[in-house]
Amino acid sequence: MQARDRLGRPLRGESITADSFPQVPEREYISCQQAWNEITNYLTRELPFHVHEVAEQRWRCAPITEKQLWRACAQMGAARTHEARGNHVGAIRLSERARETLATSDPMSPEVDSVALNTLFSTMLGP
């Protein structure tokens, strides 16, 4: 794992130390409930790269019926990361793609926090 800043940009030549900005732990499985808890926490702390990382981890291990939902969340986390880094055009394009992906997803499972989902997708990015 490489040291990164608050918005996920790699810190060139720096290794992770106790003083590094905390990153999302690498894991092969994360439950739906745990993912939503972490996403909500990261949204509150304005850490969009972390939102993207958690959603991507869940997307990889989620049942097929949830894949599009988690893919959309990962895309929106990436869009918010681009916006925070000053890439407005990339942010708009990714947020549009995320909304399109969300529109094709299956109905949400009961573990999905609709408030967190609305917060993630209600943004100044795009229409």
Could you tell me the CATH topology label: Hyaluronidase domain-like
Show unreliable segments. Answer: none
Count of helical regions: 5
How many separate structural domains? 1
Rg over CA atoms: 14 Å
Q: What is the average per-residue confidence, as pLDDT, rounded to a whole number?
A: 88
The portion of residues assigned to helices is 40-55%
- Based on secondary structure, the structural category is mainly alpha
Element order: H for helix, E for strand: HHHHH
Euclidean distance between termini CA atoms: 36 Å
* C-alpha geometry: globular
Classified by CATH, the class is Mainly Alpha
Main sheet properties? none
